[in-house]
């Protein structure tokens, strides 16, 4: 398993089909697991994908339409059954009543502690505690309150082996160099961190579900390595997309192109389209975005692109 990948547990929109389950996306990121929008059937999809509820540290809901949250009861109850001690949950504050109904939908032995972080306002930075990333949410343009999510790894440095070797710095001296910013080499010269390293931008991920085009969409997607975004409609159905608060394939690609995305994942497809229409989503996106385009399928594992080497 890649240390950083998205597992697609469902890729349909309002209505599941024979080949596409309701939404569900599990992001693995350096030992943390973020489950976004678990729709109906997510628990079973996780079994098919070889995943465990112990992989889940966060449940993140974009909004409370059923295809984005009806899997919550099964997931929470399975987490209690399997002995998961605690998890975090983020959801629109305006839907707190729906969260309570889903969280306590049936009788079960409830042992899990869920740290709830309701989202309110136009932008929220969540408390990620000791996680190796920051997580923010931005309000989107949908008929009900909805948020997109952006995960950012802090910037760091990359050590340059050739520069270290040229200056005779090795072993524990490399660690002291990283911690103190300088070290004395065997020949007595002072070696600085700047001489042996380069700036390493943190990797970034964004998930954008039901929305029309709006400024927060572009802000969430800005410079991300992997963008998972709805493309419910084909471009010829742009009027329907606007009326229902969704994006087309071409609009999703425009976001990726203007935001400088590296890998674009299209998902949340309307049941109105047939399997033979699938290539049209890729074609319409590729006409706008020159980067890597992935049309999501259930149980796909899509890695975050490798870092660019300095």
From TrEMBL:
GO molecular function terms attached to this record? 3'-tRNA processing endoribonuclease activity
Please report the stretch or stretches of sequence annotated as the Metallo-beta-lactamase domain: 198-269
**Per the entry, which co-factors are needed?**
Zn(2+)
Q: Which residues cross the membrane?
A: none
For the keyword tRNA processing, the answer is yes
Q: Which reaction is recorded as catalysed by this protein?
A: Endonucleolytic cleavage of RNA, removing extra 3' nucleotides from tRNA precursor, generating 3' termini of tRNAs. A 3'-hydroxy group is left at the tRNA terminus and a 5'-phosphoryl group is left at the trailer molecule
- Keyword line: Endonuclease, Hydrolase, Metal-binding, Nuclease, tRNA processing, Zinc
Extract the InterPro entries matched here: Metallo-B-lactamas (IPR001279), RibonucZ/Hydroxyglut_hydro (IPR036866), RNase_Z/BN (IPR013471)
Look up the domain of life of the source.
Bacteria
What does the UniProt cofactor note say? Binds 2 Zn(2+) ions.
Binding of Zn(2+) 2, residues = 67-68, 210, 268
Q: Which residues bind Zn(2+) 1?
A: 63, 65, 142, 210
Q: What's its top-level EC category?
A: hydrolase
User: EC no.?
Assistant: 3.1.26.11
- Kindly identify the residues recorded as the active site: 67
Please name the HAMAP family in this protein's record.
RNase_Z_BN
Chain's role: Zinc phosphodiesterase, which displays some tRNA 3'-processing endonuclease activity. Probably involved in tRNA maturation, by removing a 3'-trailer from precursor tRNA.
Q: PANTHER family under this entry? A: ZINC PHOSPHODIESTERASE ELAC PROTEIN 1
Quaternary structure note: Homodimer.
UniProt lists the family membership as follows:
Belongs to the RNase Z family.
The name on file for this protein is Ribonuclease Z
Q: Which organism is it from?
A: Streptosporangium amethystogenes subsp. fukuiense
């Amino acid at each position: 398993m890649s240390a950083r990948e998205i597992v697609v547990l469902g890729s349909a929109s309002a209505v599941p089909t024979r080949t596409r389950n309701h939404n569900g996306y599990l992001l693995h990121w350096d030992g943390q697991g973020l489950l976004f929008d678990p729709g109906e059937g997510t628990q079973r999809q996780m079994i098919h994908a070889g995943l465990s509820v112990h992989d889940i540290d966060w449940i993140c809901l974009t909004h409370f339409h059923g295809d984005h949250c009806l899997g919550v009861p099964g997931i929470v109850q399975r987490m209690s059954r399997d002995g998961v001690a605690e998890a975090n949950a983020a959801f629109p504050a305006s839907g707190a009543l729906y969260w309570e109904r889903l969280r306590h939908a049936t009788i079960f032995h409830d042992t899990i502690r869920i740290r709830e972080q309701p989202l309110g306002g136009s932008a929220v930075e969540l408390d990620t505690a000791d996680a190796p990333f920051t997580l923010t949410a931005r309000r989107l343009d949908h008929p009900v309150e909805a948020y997109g999510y952006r995960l950012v790894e802090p910037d760091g440095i990359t050590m340059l082996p050739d520069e270290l070797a040229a200056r005779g710095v090795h072993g524990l001296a490399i660690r002291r160099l990283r911690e103190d910013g300088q070290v004395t080499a065997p020949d007595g010269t002072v070696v600085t961190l700047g001489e042996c390293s380069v700036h390493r931008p943190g990797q970034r991920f964004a998930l954008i579900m039901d929305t029309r085009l709006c400024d927060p969409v572009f802000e969430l997607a800005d410079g991300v390595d992997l963008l998972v975004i709805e493309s419910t409609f084909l471009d010829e159905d742009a009027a329907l997309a606007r009326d229902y608060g969704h994006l087309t394939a071409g609009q999703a690609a425009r976001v990726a192109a203007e935001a400088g995305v590296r890998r674009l994942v299209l998902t949340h497809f309307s049941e109105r389209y047939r399997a033979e229409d699938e290539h049209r989503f890729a074609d319409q996106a590729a006409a706008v975005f020159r980067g890597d385009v992935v049309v999501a399928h259930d149980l796909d594992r899509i890695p975050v692109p490798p870092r660019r080497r300095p």
